[in-house]
């Protein structure tokens, strides 16, 4: 779905609609800075010690990848009222590494109007964060609250 600058209500959406974000280039400095503040483990903060870790090298925190994903989603998924989360499931099938260039591909899986709150509905959105090789570094299945158009209650 592409309409530059447009914002969509629940009624404007269709199961299968897809969105693709711009890219975000990640380097070692970003990984280390984030990790020192929010996830200070050696495989995120020390390139030398990270060689001896489970990851066998510097890897971004999954939460860092999630934060980048969120930024890219906000820019690429044009729902009226923003992206209001009601829950999500997130997995990291592969580590995000220095010099990865990330982008997010999202697809609407389902749309469910609320039975009790007529001004909204829930959109189930699958978002795949991929690196420059097309490898999935994060999969997120989000329940998003999306506004409906003005309706008579």
UniProtKB/TrEMBL annotation:
<dbReference type="Pfam" id="PF01575">
    <property type="entry name" value="MaoC_dehydratas"/>
</dbReference>
<dbReference type="InterPro" id="IPR052342">
    <property type="entry name" value="MCH/BMMD"/>
</dbReference>
<feature type="domain" description="MaoC-like">
    <location>
        <begin position="18"/>
        <end position="115"/>
    </location>
</feature>
<dbReference type="InterPro" id="IPR002539">
    <property type="entry name" value="MaoC-like_dom"/>
</dbReference>
<protein>
    <submittedName>
        <fullName>Acyl dehydratase</fullName>
    </submittedName>
</protein>
<dbReference type="InterPro" id="IPR029069">
    <property type="entry name" value="HotDog_dom_sf"/>
</dbReference>
């Amino acid at each position: 779905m592409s309409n530059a600058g447009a914002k969509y209500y629940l009624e404007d959406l269709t199961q299968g609609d897809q969105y693709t974000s711009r890219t975000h280039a990640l380097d070692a400095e970003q990984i280390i800075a984030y990790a020192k503040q929010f996830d200070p483990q050696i495989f995120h903060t020390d390139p030398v010690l990270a060689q001896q870790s489970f990851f066998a090298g510097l890897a971004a925190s999954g939460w860092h990848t999630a934060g980048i994903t969120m930024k890219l989603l906000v820019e690429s998924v044009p729902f009226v009222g923003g992206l209001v989360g009601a829950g999500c499931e997130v997995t990291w099938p592969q580590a995000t590494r220095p010099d990865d260039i990330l982008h997010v591909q999202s697809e609407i899986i389902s749309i469910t109007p609320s039975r009790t709150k007529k001004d909204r509905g829930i959109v189930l959105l699958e978002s795949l964060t991929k690196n420059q090789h097309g490898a999935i570094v994060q999969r997120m299945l989000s329940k998003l609250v999306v506004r409906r158009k003005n309706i008579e209650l």
